[in-house]
Every structure is written in C-alpha cells, then in structure tokens.
Amino acid sequence: MGVAILDGSTVRAFVGDEAAFNRSIDERFAALDLNGDGVLSRAELRRALETFRLLETHFGVDVVTPPAELAALYNSIFDQFDLDRSGTVDRDEFRAEMRNILLAIADGLGDSPIQVVLEEDEAGSNLLQQAVDLEASKIAAASAAAPPLS
Ligand SMILES: [Ca+2]
C-alpha cells in the first residue's frame, strides 16, 4: 500500500502503451478466469469488479451502496462488457471495456492531480498502481538518458 499522485495523463499513457496495457489486462483476465475456460462468466466478472473496488470506493473513500443497487450495477456492467451478448466475456471484450473504463477514469481525473491511496490486491497488480509505475519508469529512463533541466 502506498500513496501516489495521479492525473488523467498518467492513466491515459498507461492505456496508450498497448504492449504494457494488454500484458497487464491479459494477466488480470487469466487470474479472473477461475475455471480456465477462456471466458469470464457473470460470477467471475462480478468477483473481478469487487476486486477492483471501483464501485465500493471512490478514490479510497468507502461508500455504502445497497445490495440490490449493487446487483443491478453489476448486471449492467456485465452487459457493457458482453458486447456480442453471448452471455460470457472473452479476452477481446475484456480488453476493450477495461480500456473504456480507464479512459473514463482518465477523463474524470482530467489535469487535476489527485493523491490516491493504492492498495496491493492479491495479484499485486492494481491497474492504477501499474499506471503510476509505468510513468515513474519512463521518467526514470528519461532522466537517466538526459541531465535534468534546471
Ligand atoms: Ca471462465
């Protein structure tokens, strides 16, 4: 767990780095596909959303959502992922919707940096944490390549 400064460009750069983004999303997908059939069921996706804690928390602040409302939210989110209405979410659908979600988060953040508390989940791969790490590694690489401006 740590604290990071995050704005929309951090998240957008992460989504825009297709190799890093797809690797991260594919790892997440594999971890969520509990029965290994190559697609996410409604229950598997719900578990995923609970892991992300996007609905229960708003940037680290716990909010209470009534269970019936949560169930409706999870159903509508599943329908958003399941683009071809097959009843399951495949890897491409998962990548596409995760990209949309992260870009929506980026738009929400805009240019105003916020301080966020990042918690390591069991996979050690919090997506916002990865966005921060990717930016930090690029800054480190850039400052190693050129002397700092002063
Ligand atoms: Ca599955």
Automatic annotation (TrEMBL):
It comes from the Eukaryota. InterPro entries: EF_Hand_1_Ca_BS, EF_hand_dom. GO terms for molecular function: calcium ion binding. Transmembrane segments: none annotated. Residues 20-55, 69-104 form the EF-hand domain. PROSITE patterns: EF_HAND_1 (PS00018), EF_HAND_2 (PS50222). This is EF-hand domain-containing protein.
